[in-house]
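--- STAGE predict ---
source: upstream dedup step, 1 unique chain passed
mode: sequence only
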Amino acid sequence: MTGSARRTATAMALVLLAAAVPLTGAAAAPAAPAAAPDPTKAEAQWIDRDTVVWNTGAGPAARGGERAPVRTELAYARRGGIAVEDGGLTGAAHRIRLTPVPGGLTDAQRAKFPHLKAYAAFRVDARDRHRIRAALTGQLVAVQRASDGTAKAATGVQTQGVLDDVYAPAATKAALGPGFTRGTPSLAVWAPTAQDVRLDIGGRTVPMRRDAASGVWSASGPRSWTGKPYRYVVKVWAPSVRKVVTNKVTDPYATALTTDSARSLLVDLDDPRLAPEGWRTLRKPPATPLRDAQIQELHIRDFSIADRTAEHPGQYLAFTDRASDGMRHLRRLARSGTSYVHLLPAFDIGTVPERKSGQTTPDCDLGSYAPDSEEQQTCVGESAAKDAYNWGYDPLHYTVPEGSYASDPEGPRRTVEFRKMVQGLNNAGLRTVMDVVYNHTVASGQADKSILDKIVPGYYQRLLADGSVATSTCCANTAPENAMMGRLVVDSIVTWATKYKVDGFRFDLMGHHPKANILAVRRALDALTPKKDGVDGKKIVLYGEGWNFGEVADDARFEQATQRHMAGTGVATFSDRARDAVRGGGPFDEDPGVQGFASGLFTDPNASKANGTPAEQKARLLHYQDLIKVGLTGNLAGYAFTDSAGRRVTGADVDYNGAPAGYADAPGDALAYADAHDNESLYDALAFKLPPGTSAADRARMQVLASATATLSQGPALYQAGSDLLRSKSLDRNSYDSGDWFNAIHWDCRDGNGFGRGLPPAADNEPKWPYAKPLLADPALAPGCADIHGAAAAYRDLLRLRATAPEFSLATGERVQRELSFPLSGTPGETPGVITMRLGSLVVVFNATPREQSQHVAALKGKAYALHPTQARGADPVVKSAAYEKGSGTFRVPARTVAVFQRG
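--- STAGE serialize ---
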């Protein structure tokens, strides 16, 4: 996202590059020579009540032969105004004496703050400890003075660590946000550094009481407060503007809002008036274990905005329109084996006007332009900043439903309608997953849409060595490693689970969370019971993006919730290994024509020089096949097999751009996918990669085959909604703000699949326009109804097959090792472009080549196999010609087909 909280191509490259190009973590800062005094930065850190660290240039302890400054101290002033003038420190009202600590930090401190291990450490003088709480409420400057009293070095001070040490033990147990006791409302906010906090409610200003132990300010009032808008009025030192400010700010624990998030609303989510009919007795579809989850990833607006049969287009209530084309399609998927709908962010976001009257629409006849025209994207771009569209990865309030999807954003109607959406999905046989984004905020500092940083400046956001806010996730990063940010994550998730009956959560950029924070979420959910909380928390699924990059990379600050660390925890991570092998190349190749297993590498080459020589293509294809084999096992690190070169290896031995391909302990640790909302849709990726002359019918077959590598793997799988209908975004690789024109799902095949709606927006796609233009202008690439219906039906057949065949639900790595094998891998019989998998009583053949292939498995000679009944009676006429010759143990499979055979 950009500064206005929108994703950019650069930010997305960081987000989804994943292990494709492992990024170097932020190493501990080396000792640096002392800079000129600059209290505008914050290069010192107060990590606990006894210890301040500062990269002064002296290292962990004063170096021999060097003359240390006469004294080091903290200066503070409640009203601010500290400055360095002519070598002297002015405006400092009080001081805290510091003493150098020989040897620097203790082992325990180094373990807690590994990025600070090279810093010099200073001990707070015991005589000044009584000043700590007062010092934290004003401007703080660390200063080193020479013998003549001049300030040789001075810098601001980061205080996250000491705030946790002093206040978190009590604050983590305190009630926060709105609360009701026998109908009497109360409000509480954690603001330990604030000089004063008042409550602005219903047009009145009410004093709040401060608890000294926790730093929590609270107020209770009459029942008439219920339903009233409120804000906190927080007087606090703000380092970003270097002065004491009075912020009027909404509640980070808000559960309801007025339009455009202008005010929080004091609402009781247990109020029966907010419960739709049947909410209390809602019966959910049976819970599917994470290892068996088949997930449709869906944006709320995309789902219905172009559906002429929907009564509530673009709204939560569209999921209650049982007769709409979209809901009919979801029910078909549910009957076939889809278990979850994963909703892109549906919490309150910061980039969409919530009232229709405040939203713009493209002022053009978009359908009148040529399929390869620049005009559509130009027109869409002119209204994008204020239209109704955004993916929503720009959090404003974490625990309130987004208002633009409600029929009326004013008040708690959004709560009722969100619940009706969950109810509608559950009634369709689908459980609900929320995409949650706790790793960053839409803004920080004193910006208009900053909330957390206006209440406790410098605490909730992750800061870099100089005190600036880290933005590696695209926006203002949060710091879940800090106790109260970590608690906010847990509390928010529990609220969604208990008050909205959400069945699962997908964490955006989960690798920017500590593993401990995600495990705390898991423990909190596991403690929820139907009797006490109305939900069975153990059945709630968790998964996320375990990418490793940015200032936290390689565990620079804490043990991250990355792919390798989350194995065995019950929390799945997206696996990019097979994704890249199936599609070809990586998401950010300069030439989008780099081919892979399902896009014709070596077996159906295109004209791209990036693919290399035929020999290079063959070698890369066989390696891709090894990556896919590992993916089919559930990405198991310990799975042993013979690779395409004939070597005995484990999943962890197979190379994925310098990282182990296998990292899972058991099926369910890794989540398979071939496309998601990020990057080109699968259809568009294949459009770039398959030879231009490939027919729409063959493209549809390759789409099904590519998806099948996820569907028929061990462990969960995710699909971008509409991918079974060959969904295209007209080659847009980053459609976060591309509007309905490029994003809407077309459930009616007569409206096409979205291909040929103009060149995709220039901001993220213009370098690829020369590749895109001839493709979009080619009418042969736009699929017809037969192609779309055929692909969707074939996909549902595979879903049914997976759901009914227990072989695809192996619970342990040991069972996978025992029952799954690749009999032709590494033998002369291994065919480039074909993977043959033996799985219990099944044999699965993935033939990605443009011709029929025969796979001879000598060990099965004389054994009876036949095409699985689901495919034999299914919708795909091509796969029905697949055959097995018992006498030779040979499986014959048509071109561009995945066939599953069952032992008789």
